[in-house]
Amino acid sequence: MLRILNKRIVRDWTLFDISWSAVFILLILIIGIQSHNKVIEILSGIAGMLNVFLCAKGKVYNFYFGMFFNVTYAFISFSQHYYASFGLYLVYFLPMQFVGLYLWSKSKAKREANEESCIEMKRLSVKMKILWSVVCVVGVVFVAVIVKKMGDPMPISDSATNVLTIVGIVMMVKRYAEQWHLWNISNIFGIALWTPMFSHQENLPVSQLIMSIAFLVTSLYGTFYWLAHSSKSVSP
Question: Sign of dihedral through CA atoms 140, 143, 147, 149?
Fold first, then answer.
């Protein structure tokens, strides 16, 4: 088991990688327990954090953590009446984890001959950047209007978080570095989505807020890492 762990997971981890992961896992555990969060909320936070961090490093097995995270996060969102998040995480984000696992595995297989430990990273063309930017803006406004009518307490944040994540996942499974710009914005809205809940004296999903902060820190790391390691070739 230890050999498999060393060979497949932490083989090329730096001291920073190990320290970063340990710190956020401990934060989620400690704060979650002190705040009386449910076990599912704490486990979801840890799985989500590892999913994003491993994705930032270009590791195929990030999708296994992503599958668990998407199921648990959908349940948590439903309990907080964030219906857009519930639906999209369950019927779109979860299946896309399987798609990503398949596509990334194919890319990884092509690089194993050179003993590369992560997948190939690519760039979008200027034309595609503009196109996806327009899609994101229109999508956020459209979904916000719909979920507001459904009684969503935070329509803009909920809409932006989900729409940008939808586009981000498409870019992610196709291995485009620009996905991280969307993750950065989405994570900021994610923090805004959970922060207002601290004004109430009821059970608060503190681990979800810590997870959102961990997501933002990791997405910033992913931005620099992918832009530095992505190929010079761009999409048509």
Answer: positive
Q: What is the pTM of this model?
A: 0.78
CA atoms within 13 A on the CB side of 138: 6
Total structural domains within the chain: 1
Look at residue 93 and tell me if it is in a domain: yes
Residue 5, domain member (yes or no): no
In a domain, 223, yes or no: yes
Q: Kindly give the parts of the chain with pLDDT less than 70.
A: 1-12, 84, 109-118, 194-209, 211, 231-236
d(CA 93, CA 166): 7
Beta bridge partners of 234: 123
- Angle at which helix 15-34 crosses helix 39-56, to 10 degrees, equals 160
Residue 167 and residue 58: Cα distance in Å, rounded? 18
Boundaries of domain holding 99: 14-229
Q: What tokens does 227 get?
A: 């832009």
Give per-residue pLDDT as tens, 165-180: 889 999 999 999 999 9
Summarised one tens digit per residue, pLDDT across range 21-66 is: 888 888 878 877 877 778 888 888 889 888 988 888 888 889 999 9
Is residue 152 within 8 Å of residue 161, measured between CB atoms? no
Q: What is the rounded distance in angstroms from the CA atom of residue 35 to the CA atom of residue 205?
A: 8
Rounded Cα gap, residues 91 and 93, in angstroms: 6
Please list, residue by residue across 138-167, b when 16 or more beta carbons sit within 10 angstroms of its beta carbon and e when fewer do: ebbeebbeebeeeebebbbbbbbbbbbbbb
28 in a structural domain:
yes
